[in-house]
């Protein structure tokens, strides 16, 4: 994925560790069987990908509200669902993918949801979900009728795609765990094991810098950019046993464990000095570039970067074919619960073509289609290891095409969490990311966290989350 995609993926934050509380839609998940083969024709032949036989929606043109057409997965699926595509031949339906800039997407989606009738289908970042879900169709009956196996998806993805009443509102479409990427050659030369905890990461980074002057041990990001500086922080917070909000929606990130985790995150830059001092201005593009260009030995980011790290046109020669990966670090004496990001795709209530829209969703979220896309490396700019089902992540062909990272992602996603599903998240995220940047540039950690907690408390009270 290129620069535009980098902007796409990186504006998302997620939430991580702790004992999973993923109870949404459990009843529905429990009764669904193994994935459907699809409709059956009069002659008894199954229709591919779970699509209805007989082209009942022939001639329908759908509009899909989404961004970032250069993202590899999206670029391939656009070809598979547009004019003259396989999807059109099977269903008679064509899909027009919007290419809204990522920075404008959330606002455009909310405007369309509340006042528009232009689009049929929409994909959203999970943390936006609570503001979007009231305007989208529940899919429970459709999921059940097509015998879609929700157990094949990470529980965090299903939780983020469901409402608080247990209704499935979207199908997981694109999703990522956090991954520790590292230079295999550097760790091998220095006889260092792959770090398993954040504490190990700091020690390993310090050793690398002592023994290989000129190479930063770790690349990080503390700049204010759509919540990107929260990625590693929430991983540390959850792993240490802390959290962002409690069950009532009250801020708890300034607890003793929250302070400890946050201090560790800030110390990477200010005390341990194992990352670029310019990281106070870095977002994901700049942070990942440090690793890709051979200036840093480790980096924690979304797994979709593997396609870039394996692309000879994207990385420095010294880095190519020398990148290893592991689940994002856990916390010493705590847990390893990954932070998962998911884009569900759903149907607007004001769509005039909900049944055709469901055929489209079934196709683009179908495991066989996703495996085909993830295994296709014929066009390097469109290579993309992203896949959202466990069966797809563990598929031999998909792993052979992607160096085995899909299986590592599946491992990480077994205990993954997403960011809080609250309608006030956009305001909360702003408080958190600005506070993280302020601490990275010198503010006291405990004092700043307490002030941030007061600000979040005021946001929640104004919104009526609690009194």
UniProtKB/TrEMBL annotation:
Q: Which InterPro entries match?
A: Bact_solute-bd_prot1 (IPR050490), SBP (IPR006059)
Q: Which Gene3D superfamilies match?
A: Periplasmic binding protein-like II
A Pfam family the protein falls into: SBP_bac_1
Highest rank taxon of the organism: Bacteria
Q: Which PANTHER family match?
A: ARABINOSE-BINDING PROTEIN-RELATED, DIACETYLCHITOBIOSE BINDING PROTEIN DASA
Protein name (database record): ABC transporter substrate-binding protein
Species of origin reads Deinococcus petrolearius
């Amino acid at each position: 994925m290129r620069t535009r995609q980098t902007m796409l993926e990186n504006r998302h934050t997620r939430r991580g560790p702790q004992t999973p509380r993923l109870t949404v839609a459990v009843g529905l998940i429990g009764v669904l069987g193994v994935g459907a083969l699809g409709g059956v024709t009069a002659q008894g032949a199954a229709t591919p990908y779970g699509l209805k036989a007989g082209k009942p929606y022939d001639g329908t043109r759908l509009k899909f509200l989404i961004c970032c057409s250069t993202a590899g997965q999206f670029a391939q699926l656009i070809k598979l669902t547009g004019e003259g595509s396989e999807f059109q031949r099977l269903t008679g339906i064509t899909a027009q993918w919007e290419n809204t800039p990522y920075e404008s997407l959330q606002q455009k989606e909310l405007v369309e949801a509340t006042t528009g009738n232009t689009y049929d289908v929409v994909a959203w970042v999970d943390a936006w979900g609570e503001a979007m879900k009231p305007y989208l169709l529940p899919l429970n009956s459709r999921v059940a009728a097509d015998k879609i196996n929700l157990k094949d998806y990470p529980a965090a993805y299903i939780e983020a795609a469901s409402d608080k009443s247990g209704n499935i509102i979207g199908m997981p479409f694109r999703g990522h765990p956090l991954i520790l990427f590292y230079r295999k050659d550097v760790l091998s030369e220095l006889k260092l094991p792959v770090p398993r905890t954040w504490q190990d990461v700091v020690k390993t980074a310090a050793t690398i810098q002592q023994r290989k002057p000129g190479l930063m041990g770790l690349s990080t990001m503390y700049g204010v950019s759509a919540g990107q500086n929260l990625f590693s922080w929430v991983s540390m917070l959850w792993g240490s046993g802390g959290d962002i909000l409690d069950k009532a929606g009250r801020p708890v990130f300034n607890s003793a464990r929250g302070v400890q985790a946050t201090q560790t995150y800030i110390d990477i830059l200010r005390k341990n000095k194992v990352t670029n001092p310019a990281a106070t201005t870095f977002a994901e593009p700049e942070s990942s570039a440090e690793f890709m260009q051979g200036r840093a030995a480790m980096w924690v980011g979304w797994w979709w970067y593997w396609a870039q790290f394996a692309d000879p046109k994207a990385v420095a020669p010294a880095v190519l074919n020398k990148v290893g990966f592991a689940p994002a670090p856990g916390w010493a004496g705590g847990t390893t619960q990954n932070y998962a990001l998911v884009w569900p795709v759903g149907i607007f209530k004001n769509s005039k073509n909900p049944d055709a829209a469901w055929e489209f969703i079934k196709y683009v979220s179908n495991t066989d289609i996703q495996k085909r896309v993830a295994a296709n490396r014929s066009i390097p700019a469109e290579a993309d290891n992203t896949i959202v089902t466990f069966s797809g992540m563990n598929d031999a062909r998909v792993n052979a095409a992607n160096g085995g990272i899909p299986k590592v992602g599946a491992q990480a996603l077994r205990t993954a969490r997403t960011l809080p599903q609250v309608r006030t998240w956009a305001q909360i995220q702003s408080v958190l990311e600005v506070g993280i940047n302020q601490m990275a540039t010198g503010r006291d950690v405990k004092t700043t966290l307490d002030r941030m907690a007061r600000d979040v408390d005021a946001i929640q009270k104004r919104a009526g989350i609690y009194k």
